[in-house]
Design a protein that fits this description.
Chain lengths: ~290, ~240
C-alpha cells in the first residue's frame, strides 16, 4: 500500500470517528421516540458558534469550551423537546417532521442574520500542528477531536448498557408500554434522550470548531451526512451508527483521493443508496 | 383489594370494548377472567395497569382510586402485569429484563434478593442469564415475562394468557408456578383461554362476553356450569 493511501485512510478514520459521534445522537433520538431531528446539523453549527464566540469574546480556547457547549446543547435539547417535540409526539407523523424541520430552518436563518453567512475560524487554538510518523502526518487537533469522539461514544455505550437509567432508555426504545409497566416514566426518558442526543452533537461541534470552518451552512452538510450514517447503520442502532460513521469517513476520503474531491459526497450517497438497496434495514438494523 | 366499579373502557376512536363491568379481587385470592376472543379481557387488564383509562366508572386499589395514578406509578402501588404476548425487551439479556422488572425498587439489596428468588423459581432462566430475550424459546420467554412481573414484588400480579402458544407439559408447569406464587401471598388476577386449568387453580372466576360479565362464581362451580362447559370446555 502506498504511503499516500495510508495517509488517506488515517484521514478518513479521523473524520469518521467524529461522524460517528454526531450520528449516535441522532440515531438515539430516533430509536427512543421515532422522530428524525432535522435540526441535528444545526445543533452542531450552534455549538460551533458557541465555541467561536467564547473564543472571540472571552479568549476561551475551544478545548475548554467543550463542557459549556455540552451543557448548553443539553439544555437546548431539553427545552425543544419540552416545548415543541413533546406537543406533537402523539400527533401525525407529518407534524413531527414539520416541527424539527421548522426548528432547523429557524436556527439556520437566525445564524445567517446574526452572524452573516461568512466562514469564520478560530485563529489560534491551543492545539495546532502535526505529529509525524515517518511520512504519515497526523493533525493534532483532528487527532484529539477523534480520540475524544471515540471516548464519548464509548461512554454513552457504557451508560446505556450498564446504568439503570441507560437500560430504561433502551427498554423504552424496545417496548414503550412494557417500560411503562415496569415503572419507567417514558416521557422523561424521551426528554432525557433528546437532551443527551443534543449534548452529543454539542460535544462534536466543540471538537469540530478546533479546526473546521464555522459558518451557518455547516449544519446542512453534516446533518445530511449524519442522516445517511443513521440509515446506513440501521435506524436506532448505536453500534450501527458508530460503524457506519467510520465507514463513511473512510469512503469519503478515499473517494476524494481516487476520484475528484468534488465527488466525495456523491460517493458517500452512492454507498448509502447501494446499501439500503441490498439491506433496507441498514447494517445493524432490525 | 381490587375493585372495578361500573367501568366502561374503550380505545381511541373506537366503540366501548368493555361496558359497565364491576368485579372484585380479594386479598390472597386467585381470580380468573375468562371469555372468548375479543371479549375484552385484555382491555380490562390494560385499564387496571394504567395503559388505558376507563371512560366512566372507577378502579380502586385498597379503597384508593387507581385510574388516576400515572401508568408508570401503578407498579409502585404493588400492581404488576405480565402482558399478553410477553412484550419482553427483546435485545436486552435475560438478567436485564428481570432487572427492568425491579426498576421501581430503589434498594439494590432487595432487588438482588428478589432476583435470586425468581431465578430459583425458573432454573431455566438462570442457565440463560446472558442470552438476549428474543432468542429464548416461547416457553422460556413466558417464564421470563412472569419472572419480570414478580421482580417488582407485587401484591397483585395480573397475567394475560400466560399459557398462550406453549406446549401442554409446560402449561401445567406455568399453572403450577402461578399456584406457588399465590401460596406465597400474592393476589393473582388471571386471564386465560385454558379455561379448565385456570378454573382449577382459581378461587373465583368471572365470565366475560362481548364486554359484559355474564357469569361469576367459584372455580369448581363454574367448571360444572352449563354455559362454561358448552362455550369454553366444548362439553
Ligand atoms: N388497540 C386497540 N385499538 C382498538 N380496538 C382494540 C384494540 N385492542 C383491542 N381492541 C378491541 O377491543 C375488543 C376487546 O379486545 P381485547 O383484546 O380486550 O379482547 P380479549 O378478550 O383479550 O381477546 P383475546 O382472547 O383474543 O386476547 C376487541 O373488539 C378488539 O378488537
Ligand atoms: Mg387478550
Amino acid at each position: 500500500m502506498s504511503e499516500q493511501l495510508i495517509q488517506q485512510l488515517v484521514n478518513g478514520l479521523l473524520i469518521g470517528f467524529l461522524y460517528s459521534l454526531i450520528a449516535i445522537g441522532l440515531t438515539m433520538i430516533w430509536g427512543v421516540m421515532n422522530i428524525i431531528n432535522f435540526a441535528h446539523g444545526d445543533f452542531l453549527m450552534l455549538s460551533m458558534f458557541i465555541s467561536f464566540w467564547l473564543y472571540t469574546l472571552y479568549g476561551l480556547d475551544p478545548i475548554f469550551s467543550i463542557p459549556i457547549c455540552t451543557g448548553l446543547l443539553f439544555l437546548l435539547g431539553l427545552l425543544i423537546y419540552k416545548y415543541l417535540v413533546s406537543k406533537v409526539m402523539t400527533g401525525p407523523a407529518l407534524a413531527q417532521l414539520v416541527v424539527t424541520f421548522g426548528v432547523s430552518i429557524f436556527i439556520a436563518n437566525a445564524a445567517v442574520l446574526l452572524w452573516t453567512p461568512d466562514f469564520k475560524m478560530i485563529e489560534k487554538p491551543l492545539l495546532t500542528g502535526t505529529w509525524s510518523f515517518g511520512t504519515i502526518q497526523l493533525s493534532i487537533p483532528k487527532a484529539v477531536a477523534s480520540a475524544g469522539s471515540v471516548l464519548v461514544s464509548l461512554a454513552l455505550f457504557l451508560f446505556l448498557r450498564k446504568s439503570k437509567t441507560g437500560k430504561a432508555i433502551l427498554a423504552t426504545e424496545m417496548n414503550r408500554n412494557s417500560a411503562l409497566l415496569m415503572g419507567v416514566n417514558t416521557d422523561r426518558v424521551n426528554a432525557l434522550s433528546f437532551a443527551i442526543g443534543s449534548a452529543l452533537v454539542g460535544i462534536a461541534g466543540a471538537f469540530l470548531s478546533m479546526y473546521y470552518y464555522i459558518y451557518p451552512g455547516v449544519g446542512g452538510t453534516f446533518g445530511l451526512i449524519s442522516f445517511c450514517i443513521v440509515a446506513l447503520g440501521g435506524f436506532g442502532s448505536i453500534e450501527g451508527a458508530f460503524i457506519a460513521g467510520i465507514l463513511i469517513g473512510i469512503v469519503q476520503t478515499l473517494g476524494g483521493y481516487f476520484f475528484d474531491p468534488a465527488y466525495k459526497y456523491a460517493i458517500v450517497f452512492a454507498l448509502y443508496l447501494v446499501t439500503v438497496w441490498i439491506r433496507p434495514q441498514g447494517l445493524l438494523g432490525w | 383489594m381490587l375493585e372495578i366499579k361500573n367501568a366502561s373502557i374503550g380505545y381511541k376512536g373506537g366503540v366501548l370494548a368493555v361496558q359497565g363491568i364491576s368485579f372484585t379481587v380479594k386479598k390472597g385470592e386467585v381470580v380468573s377472567l375468562i371469555g372468548s376472543n375479543g371479549a375484552g379481557k385484555s382491555t380490562v387488564l390494560r385499564a387496571i395497569s394504567g395503559l388505558l383509562r376507563p371512560r366512566t366508572g372507577e378502579i380502586l386499589l385498597n379503597g384508593e382510586p387507581l385510574h388516576t395514578v400515572p401508568p408508570y406509578d401503578i407498579v409502585r402501588r404493588g400492581v404488576a402485569m405480565v402482558p399478553e404476548g410477553r412484550q419482553l425487551f427483546g435485545r436486552l439479556s435475560v438478567i436485564d429484563n428481570l432487572l427492568m422488572g425491579a426498576y421501581a425498587i430503589d434498594s439494590k439489596q432487595r432487588t438482588q434478593e428478589t432476583l435470586e428468588t425468581v431465578l430459583a423459581l425458573f432454573p431455566r432462566l438462570a442457565e440463560r442469564k446472558g442470552q438476549r430475550a428474543e432468542t429464548l424459546s416461547g416457553g422460556e420467554q413466558q417464564q421470563l415475562a412472569i419472572g419480570r412481573g414478580l421482580m417488582s414484588q407485587p401484591s397483585l400480579l395480573m397475567l394475560d394468557e400466560p399459557s398462550l402458544g406453549i406446549m401442554p407439559k409446560l402449561v401445567s408447569e406455568i399453572f403450577q408456578t402461578i399456584h406457588e406464587v399465590s401460596k406465597k401471598g400474592v393476589t393473582v388476577l388471571l386471564v386465560e383461554q385454558n379455561v379448565f386449568e385456570a378454573l382449577h387453580i382459581s378461587d373465583r372466576a368471572y365470565v366475560l362476553q362481548t364486554g359484559r360479565i355474564v357469569l361469576e362464581g367459584r372455580g369448581e362451580e363454574l367448571l360444572k356450569s352449563d354455559l362454561v362447559r358448552q362455550a369454553y370446555l366444548g362439553m
